[in-house]
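Second opinion, please. Pick holes in both lines of this record:
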Amino acid sequence: MSQPITGDTQVYLLPGDPVRNVRLPRMFNAVFARFGIDAVMVPVQVPVRDFAVHFRASFLAHNLRGMVIAPPHKPRVVDLLDSCGLCARVAESVNVVRRTDDGQLEGDLFDGDGLLDALDHYGIPFRGKRVLILGAGVSAAAIGLALVEGGTVNGAEYIAFHDTVSGKAAGVAAQLDAFFDATIVAVDSNAPEGYDLVINATPLGLQDADASPVDVQRMDAHAALFDILLRNQPTPLVRAARARGLHAQAGFEMLIQQMPHYFRYFGYPEVADALCEDMTFLREIIYPPAMRAEIAAPIRYRSANVA
C-alpha cells in the first residue's frame, strides 16, 4: 500500500529521457512502503539540453534528498557535483546523487557493484577469470572497473573490451589500466573463445531482429553469459546461450542488486541490510511473468571451473 504524501515527505527524483519504462521508481516506492519510510521517488522526463538547469534548480527544494540518474544523463552529472566516488570519476558518469547534511552534492556509480553482486547471486565466477565485455559505454566501464577492483586476488585477472566504434574500447581500457594491476585490453574481435565470462553491455538484443553481439556457438563449454539488458528479456542472445546449455542470465538481477547500495548511500543502512537478506518482493515487481520461475529457483552455475 502506498503511503500518503505530506509536507514532511522526502523526495527523490529519477531524471531521464525517456522515462516511460523506468523500473526504479516502483522498486524504491515499494521499499519505502515496506519499511515505513516517509519518502517517494518520482520519474521526471528531462531533455538533455535542459538537464543542467533542471538538476541545479531541483536541489533548491530542501526536501529533495537525492536522485537516481537514468540515461542519457549519467555522463552529465560529474561536473555538477561537489564530489564523487572513484567509480564515478573513472567512468566519468554518475547514477546516484545525494545531498549531505551540510548541503553538499555527492555522486557515485553502482552499475558495477550491481553486476558483481548479481554474479555472486547466481554463483557465476569472475575472480581470477578472463572476461570479455561487449560494449564500451558507461555501464561497460563501470562493470570493468568493478571486475578488476582489488586486483587479481579478488577481481578478474583479464578484462577485454570490444566495441564496434573505433577507439572507444581502447579509451576505456586505457582509462582503467591506469588504476589497476589486472590486464585490461581492447580487442578488435568479439570472438568469445578463451573467456570464462562474456558480458553484453551493448543495446543489441532490444529488438529480436538485432544482430547478435557474440556468437554463442563459439563460447567455451564452461563459460557463462550475462546480458545487462532489461527490455526484451530473455533476449535472443540469452535464449541462444541457454539452448546450448550455457549459464546465461538477464540483466534484472544487476538492477535489483544495486538497491542495497542505493539505500546505504542514501542513509538507510538497516534497510540495506534487510534487502541483502531478502529482495524477493522486488524480483516479483521486475521479472516478467514468463521468467517468474527463476525468482524462486535461479539457474546456478555448475562447473569444475567455479572458484
